[in-house]
C-alpha cells in the first residue's frame, strides 16, 4: 500500500489545538506551582505529543526523552549559570573596576565556549531520543572539532562586522547535518555561504522596501534554502528533500494566526502552533526511492540532556 | 477473544512486521509472519512492557531496553481486553494531573484558583519577601553600590543608554552650597548624605542607595524658600534611610523572576538581570514608599524647627511644573491628592520657628548663585 507512490513521500502533522491547549495549561499550572522546577517535564510532554503526531510514510515519530533526564541536565546548567552570575555580581560588588572587567570578559568567553559544547550535547541527545519505526537517529560529530570551527567562525564574524555570519551559519549546518545518522541513512548539507548571504541581503532589503510585506516570502526562501540543501542517502541511493512552501501561503497563514492570537488575547496559541506545524510539515517532501523497511539500527544511546537544556536556556536558534 | 492484529517493529530494522498478539497469563504471545511465510514467536513479559501511548486510534507499546521493540494495535477492543485480562496491571499511565480526569468544571475551577493564588503571591507575598531580603544587605555594600551607580550616571551619560534623559553634568557651586545646607539639618540618618546639583531644566530629584541625592537645577530654580529645599532633602534622605531604592530593586527583580518562571521564559532572566541594572534609577517608587518618605520629611522639618509649610509648597511647585513637563519625568514622584492633603493636615499653623542663621545664609548664597537675588 505504501509502495504505491515511490517518488515522493510527505511529512505530515496531525496534532490538534485542543489537545495542545490541555498540555499547555497543565504544564503551565504545574510549572507555576513548582516555581519552575516542572519545566523539564513540561518540555518532555510537549515534545512527546508533537513527535507522536508527526508522521512520515505512514508511521509516526517517537520522542524517548523523559522529564527526569532533562531535569538532571537542567539542574546542572542552572548550577553553571548560577556560578557564572555569582562571580559577575561578586566582582561588581567589590567595586574594583579591573576585577569587574576581567570577570566580565571571562564571563563572555566562557559563555561563548559553552555554546558549541551545548550544541554538541543537544544534537547528541535530541537525535538519540528520536526514533521512527523503532530506529533511532544519531549524531556522530566531534565536540572539539565543532568547538574549533565554531570559535574560528565566530571570530571571523565579529571582525567582519557580521558579514561572515552567513558562512558561519552554513558551516555550522554543514558540520552538524553531515554528522546526523538515521539508521543507515546519511545526510549532507549542500548550502554555501555566498548564496546564503545574498539570499539574506535580498530578503532584508526587499522586506524594508516593501514595509515588511516581503518578509513572508523571505522567510519561505530561508526555509526552502535550508530544506532543499539537505540531501539524504540510503545505501548509495540519493534521497533529495524538497520544499513546496510558498510565500503567499505563509503570508495567509500568518495573517490568520495573527488575528486568532489578537482576538483571543493569545489564548489561541496552541491552535496557532498546530497550524504552523501542519503548514511546515506538509511542505516537506522526500524524493527518490526511499525504502522505509530496510533501515538498520546503527546508533548508540545517549541520555545526557545537559546540552539540550543549555541550548534551551540560552535560547540558541542557530541551525 | 484474546488475540489481536498488530504491527511490530523489532528495534533492529525499520521493517513493519504484521502479526498477532495473544494476551496470556503474565506475558504477551506475539506471533509474526516472516516474508518467507514461516511464523516466529516472541514473548513480552508483562513487567517489562514499559511505555504506552495512544496516538489517534492506535495503541503503542514499547518493550525492553534500548533499542526498544514496538507494538501497535488499532483494534478498539484491545484496551478493554487488557483491563479484563490484567485487572491489577496499569498499562495506561493515569493522567498525571488528576484534575484532567475530573471533568471540565473541576479543571477550570482549579485553573482559576491557581491563577488567583499566583496573583496573590505576586502582589502581596513577593514584595514583602523581597523587601525583607533588601534589608539584609549590609550598609557598606549599599554605599559602595550606590556610589558606583552614581559615578556611572555622572561620568558616562551616553545617548540612548542609561542617562538618555539624565545627561547629567554636575554644577559644582550649587552642589557645594547644597552640601553645606544639608549639614545644618539633622536627618537622623546613619548614611553619608551627599547632594549633587546637576544642570538640568527638568523639575525632579532622586536618591540612590547609600546616600547620594541628585537634585535637578530646574527644581532648585523654582524654589523660593529654604524650607521647600529642606522638605525636598528630607524626602530624598528618607528614601536613602529607609533603603527604598534597594527595596525597589529587589521588588522588581523578584517580580521579574517570578513572571519569567511562570511563563517558562527562563532564558529571558539572563537578559533582564543585565538589562535591569541599567534601568534602576528610572524606577518609580510605590505609593507607600512615597508616603513614608513624606512623613519622614515632615518629621525632619518639625525636629529641626523648620517651617512645615515647606512640604506643601514643594508639592505645589511639583504640581505646577507637572502641567508643562512630560509626565514620565515625574514618575518617581507621582503627585496625588492624598500627598497634598497629608502635607496640609500636618502643617503646623503659627508654629514656633527657631531660625538657624547658618541655614538662612547658605540659602541666600544659593539664591545668589541662581541669580535670583
From TrEMBL, chain A:
Segments traversing the membrane: 20-41, 73-93, 99-119, 150-169, 205-227, 248-272
Pfam families attached to this UniProt entry: DUF898
Keyword Glycoprotein found: no
Keyword terms, alphabetized: Membrane, Transmembrane, Transmembrane helix
Name of the protein this chain belongs to: Uncharacterized membrane protein YjgN (DUF898 family)
Organism: Arcicella aurantiaca
From TrEMBL, chain B:
Cofactor note: Binds 1 zinc ion per subunit.
GO annotation (BP), single: proteolysis involved in protein catabolic process
Metal-binding listed as a keyword: yes
Keywords, sorted A to Z: Hydrolase, Membrane, Metal-binding, Metalloprotease, Protease, Transmembrane, Transmembrane helix, Zinc
Peptidase M48 domain sequence ranges: 170-345
Database matches in InterPro entries: Mito/Outer_Membr_Metalloprot, Peptidase_M48
Cofactor needs: Zn(2+)
Annotated transmembrane regions: 103-125
Keyword presence, Membrane: yes
Cellular component terms per the entry's GO annotation: membrane
Any one GO molecular-function label of the UniProt entry: metalloendopeptidase activity
Gene3D superfamilies linked to this entry: Metalloproteases ('zincins'), catalytic domain
Stated family: Belongs to the peptidase M48 family.
Identification of the protein by name: Peptidase M48-like protein
Amino acid at each position: 500500500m505504501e509502495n504505491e507512490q515511490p517518488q515522493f513521500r510527505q511529512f505530515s502533522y496531525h496534532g490538534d489545538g485542543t489537545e495542545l491547549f490541555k498540555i499547555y495549561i497543565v504544564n503551565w499550572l504545574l510549572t507555576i506551582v513548582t516555581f519552575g522546577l516542572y519545566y523539564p517535564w513540561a518540555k518532555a510532554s510537549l515534545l512527546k505529543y508533537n513527535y507522536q503526531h508527526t508522521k512520515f510514510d505512514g508511521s509516526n515519530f517517537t520522542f524517548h526523552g523523559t522529564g527526569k533526564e532533562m531535569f538532571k541536565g537542567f539542574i546542572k546548567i542552572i548550577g553553571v549559570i548560577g556560578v557564572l552570575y555569582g562571580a559577575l555580581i561578586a566582582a561588581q560588588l567589590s567595586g574594583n573596576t579591573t576585577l569587574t572587567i576581567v570577570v566580565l570578559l571571562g564571563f563572555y568567553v566562557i559563555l561563548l565556549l559553552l555554546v558549541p559544547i551545548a550544541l554538541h550535547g543537544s544534537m547528541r541527545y535530541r537525535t538519540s531520543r528520536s526514533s521512527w519505526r523503532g530506529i533511532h537517529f544519531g549524531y556522530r560529530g566531534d565536540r572539539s572539532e565543532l568547538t574549533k570551527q565554531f570559535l574560528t567562525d565566530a571570530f571571523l564574524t565579529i571582525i567582519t562586522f557580521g558579514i561572515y555570519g552567513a558562512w558561519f551559519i552554513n558551516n555550522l549546518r554543514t558540520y552538524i547535518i553531515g554528522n546526523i545518522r538515521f539508521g543507515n541513512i546519511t545526510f549532507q548539507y549542500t548550502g554555501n555561504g555566498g548564496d546564503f548571504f545574498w539570499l539574506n541581503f535580498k530578503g532584508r532589503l526587499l522586506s524594508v522596501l516593501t514595509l515588511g510585506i516581503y518578509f513572508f516570502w523571505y522567510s519561505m526562501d530561508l526555509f526552502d534554502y535550508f530544506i532543499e540543501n539537505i540531501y539524504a542517502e540510503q545505501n548509495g541511493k540519493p534521497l533529495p528533500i524538497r520544499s513546496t512552501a510558498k510565500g503567499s501561503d505563509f503570508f495567509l497563514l500568518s495573517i490568520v494566526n495573527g488575528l486568532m492570537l489578537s482576538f483571543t488575547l493569545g489564548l489561541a496559541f496552541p491552535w496557532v502552533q498546530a497550524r504552523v506545524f501542519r503548514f511546515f510539515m506538509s511542505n516537506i517532501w522526500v524524493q527518490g526511492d526511499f525504502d522505509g523497511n530496510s533501515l538498520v539500527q546503527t546508533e548508540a544511546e545517549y541520555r545526557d540532556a545537559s546540552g539540550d537544556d543549555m541550548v534551551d536556556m540560552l535560547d540558541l536558534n542557530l541551525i | 477473544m484474546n488475540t489481536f492484529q498488530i504491527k511490530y517493529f523489532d528495534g533492529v530494522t525499520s521493517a513493519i512486521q504484521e502479526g498477532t498478539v495473544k494476551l496470556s497469563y503474565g506475558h504477551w504471545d506475539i506471533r509474526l509472519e516472516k516474508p518467507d511465510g514461516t511464523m516466529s514467536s516472541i514473548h513480552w513479559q508483562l513487567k517489562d512492557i514499559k511505555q504506552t501511548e495512544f496516538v489517534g486510534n492506535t495503541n503503542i507499546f514499547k518493550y525492553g531496553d534500548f533499542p526498544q521493540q514496538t507494538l501497535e494495535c488499532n483494534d478498539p477492543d484491545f484496551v478493554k481486553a487488557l483491563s479484563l485480562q490484567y485487572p491489577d496491571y496499569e498499562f495506561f499511565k493515569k493522567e498525571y494531573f488528576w484534575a484532567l480526569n475530573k471533568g471540565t468544571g473541576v479543571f477550570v475551577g482549579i485553573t482559576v484558583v491557581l491563577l488567583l493564588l499566583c496573583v496573590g503571591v505576586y502582589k502581596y507575598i513577593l514584595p514583602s519577601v523581597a523587601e525583607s531580603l533588601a534589608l539584609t544587605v549590609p550598609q557598606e555594600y549599599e554605599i559602595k553600590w550606590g556610589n558606583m551607580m552614581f559615578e556611572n550616571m555622572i561620568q558616562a551619560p551616553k545617548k540612548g543608554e542609561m542617562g538618555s534623559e539624565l545627561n547629567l553634568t554636575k554644577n559644582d557651586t550649587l552642589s557645594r552650597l547644597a552640601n553645606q545646607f544639608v549639614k545644618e539639618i539633622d536627618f537622623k540618618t546613619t548614611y553619608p548624605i551627599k547632594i549633587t546639583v546637576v544642570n538640568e531644566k527638568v523639575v525632579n530629584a532622586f536618591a540612590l542607595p547609600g546616600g547620594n541625592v541628585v537634585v535637578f537645577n530646574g527644581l532648585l530654580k523654582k524654589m523660593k524658600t529654604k524650607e521647600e529645599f529642606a522638605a525636598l532633602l528630607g524626602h530624598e534622605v528618607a528614601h536613602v534611610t529607609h533603603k527604598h531604592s534597594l527595596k525597589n530593586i529587589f521588588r522588581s527583580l523578584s517580580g521579574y523572576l517570578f513572571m519569567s518562571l511562570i511563563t517558562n521564559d527562563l532564558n529571558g532572566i539572563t537578559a533582564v538581570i543585565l538589562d535591569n541594572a541599567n534601568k534602576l534609577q528610572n524606577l518609580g517608587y510605590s505609593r507607600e514608599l512615597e508616603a513614608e518618605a513624606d512623613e519622614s520629611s515632615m518629621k525632619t522639618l518639625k525636629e529641626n524647627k523648620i517651617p512645615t509649610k515647606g512640604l506643601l509648597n514643594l508639592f505645589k511647585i511639583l504640581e505646577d511644573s507637572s502641567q508643562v513637563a512630560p509626565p514620565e519625568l515625574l514618575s518617581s514622584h507621582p503627585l496625588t491628592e492624598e500627598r497634598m492633603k497629608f502635607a496640609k493636615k500636618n502643617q503646623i499653623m503659627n508654629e514656633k520657628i527657631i531660625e538657624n542663621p547658618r541655614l538662612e545664609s547658605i540659602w541666600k548664597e544659593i539664591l545668589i548663585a541662581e541669580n535670583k537675588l
